[in-house]
Input
Amino acid sequence: MISSKVRNSSQKRPMEDRVTALNNSEKRSDQWSQLLISVGENRDRRAFAQLFEHFGPLLKGFAYASRNEGWFPGLGDDLVQEVMIKVWNKAGGYNAEKASATTWIYTVARNCRIDMLRRKSNTQHLPLENEDFWHEPDEETPVSLLQQKRSEERVQDSLAQLPKEQDQILRKVYLEGKSHAEASAELGLPLGTVKSRVRLALQKMQLIVSKEAQE
Amino acid sequence: MTNTTNHHPDENMLIEFSAGTLDTAASICVSAHLHFCSSCKAKLLQLDQVGSHIMSQAEPVDVAEDVFDQVMEKIDSGIDNASADQATNDDMPFSVNKLIGTSLMNKNWKRLSSSVDIARFKTGQNQFEVALHKICAGGKTPKHDHDGLEYTVVLKGSFSDENAVYREGDFLLRQPGDVHQPMGAQNGECICLSALSAPIVPTSPLGFLMKPWLRINPM
Output
């Protein structure tokens, strides 16, 4: 403590830089939530265009990451289109206190991707869409927007810090959309190993999130 | 929402549910459980948060130039503009409500035995028979083993077996080797959602009396 007080101004710079960087990244991560709110409340087309510009290519990449049964080359642009239309239509129901825009949009994207693959690979009538499984009333979880936002930044950092095999398994499960059984076959690992590795990796990340939430 | 549920899907099932890789029949059962269970829902929220960041790690790919215009055109024409809010009946999980509204095989219960009725759903998959079972108050079901997986979620009332009492929202997974004999509670009928991948295996010598139980109709 004392030594920091006697530091000269040039030694203080890195700390100030870090603070500035943190503020910037908070602004950045929050920007999408603000835009999404504006789309919901004001039917703001400019905000929507900004969301499209940012999330469009990411969503197309997300579609390309899953070469599962039913995949077709046009899936990328189709998914972008379907997800963004849903974003426009459902933005009014977005609650920034419960999730960041990223979490919210990927919840929509995950359901869309599953349904599009299922429709393509299935000739039977499917009475339920994946979205139907997510209609249960929300908890009144007392998570402030700030906490959400900060923990999401930590999530991103912690992903990068995971051991390679844990990072790999989480990508298989969430990004490629592989079931535990499929991941086990592809990686040549026993199912039990896949299960425990996924759990461990997610526990590690959740620990970081909840630790952050208590701070 | 009450949270009196004591039996939950295991963590890996919640993970697969959150990643969207769980099969349809199991997803129906997990979503039914979530209707009653706030602790699993809170866990799921965390998984979604982490999962969404993994999903956003995909390599960006350029979107075709006309996609944005197409999206705006559809938005302007009002296509797909249906409200997301659909009528809900809070007593039942959304997915079960929807199945009851659209996908019952028969309009009425079918008798399986003197104490158990069944109503089967058509869910567009061919691994599991997804159905509602109604056990009358105090009703006994045959003691049985399992040849495959059996998911059960209590939707109304309660039942018990040799191990425990299961109440609204409780989620059970039975596997080969799990022998049990469910009994309806004395104080009222019990309705369960179930998904069964193989017919149950009666363990009583009079098992041949259980003919209606011995086949399933996955659909």
User: Anything to note?
Assistant: Residues 135 and 155 of chain A are 25 Å apart (CA to CA). The mean pLDDT of chain A is 80.
